[in-house]
Every structure is written in C-alpha cells, then in structure tokens.
Specification:
Blueprint: H1 6-13, H2 16-22, H3 28-33, H4 43-52
Helix pairs in contact: 1-2
Protein name: Domain of uncharacterized function (DUF1731)
Domain DUF1731: 4-50
InterPro entries: DUF1731
C-alpha cells in the first residue's frame, strides 16, 4: 500500500480510516470455535481460485 498521510485516509474513509491506520483485533479462532467453516482456510487456495476466473 502506498504511503498515504493519515488525514487523507480520514477524509476518504471517515471512521474506517481508524481500522486502516491502527489495525483490527479480529480473530479467526473465535469464529471457528463458533462453527464457521472457511471455504479457503489458507490464503494460497483462495488466490488460486481467484486466478482461475
């Protein structure tokens, strides 16, 4: 991602800029424990599927 000043991101994305700038504490472990099953558990498989299309 190019180096974009934080104020530009805030102008473009509003509150979403905070997530882009600070990150997120999302955890796949929590949703897996809740019973969610990923179609592509590994990034490589998802990318291969995208490139087929």
């Amino acid at each position: 991602m190019p180096n974009v000043p934080p104020f530009v991101l805030k102008l473009m994305f509003g509150e979403l800029a905070d997530i882009l700038l600070q990150g997120s504490r999302a955890s796949s472990e929590k949703i897996i424990k809740a019973g969610f099953d990923f179609k592509f558990p590994v990034l490589e498989g998802a990318l291969e599927d995208l490139l087929k299309k």
